[in-house]
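Thread: sanity check for a docking pose with zinc ion

Original post by kr_44:
Hi all, I'm comparing my docking run against an independent structure prediction. Below are the sequence and the ligand SMILES. Could someone generate the full complex and paste the structure tokens? I mainly care about where the ligand ends up relative to the chain.
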Amino acid sequence: MTYAQKLRAALLDQLGKDWLVFMPRWDVQRRCAWQGKGGVPAALMLHHTAAAATDSVNPRAAGNQKGANRNVITYIQTHYEVPAASFTLDRDGTVYVHSALPVWHAGLGTFQGKPPWNQLGIRADTANDHLLGVEIMSKGLKKDFTVAQQDSLVFLLRACRDASGWDNVGLLRRPQHKSWTTRKIDTRYSDAEIGAMITKYGFTDAVPDPSRDA
Ligand SMILES: [Zn+2]
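Reply from moderator J.T.:
Ran it for you. Here is the predicted complex with zinc ion included:
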């Protein structure tokens, strides 16, 4: 089974088909093969788009409807030769799957001296070769993720866990872009706030990794 096949099965299992849009060539678009252990990604990096039709969290707001942010999703899919994220998480909770394989999203940065992520064994400036990345649709000016986005993020993380063979979705597996590089501020949420979105469901696999204290 290829990684793309595993990812598709895990996404359908965790999110369900009504919350998924597989973009053209999602299973083949890539820069390279997954580097690192087992030929699978090491984590899911969290981003915000810094562009969105609204920062209202009202689910009935026009900018939170399916298709309202189509221009941003198209940009991420087509701006470069390969997509600019593995996934886009729209404000209505829909997950657009751009690629199951390494693309562009992390840029220059490092996890050196930054536990627990220093344990991932990723050399400086090579995160794109090792990490999935989700662009969460948000103006990025404040904490404006909709409830639908928060819910889908939890199940997206769990799908990545299942496809990649991770034990949990603790801090190790969900670094934020701002932890990779001080050039970036995404997302506006703290790691603990992201963890709380997961534990809200009663899922216990969001607990900080023991390695966090190392
Ligand atoms: Zn980012």
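The longest helix spans residues 147-164. Hope that helps with the comparison, let us know if your pose agrees.
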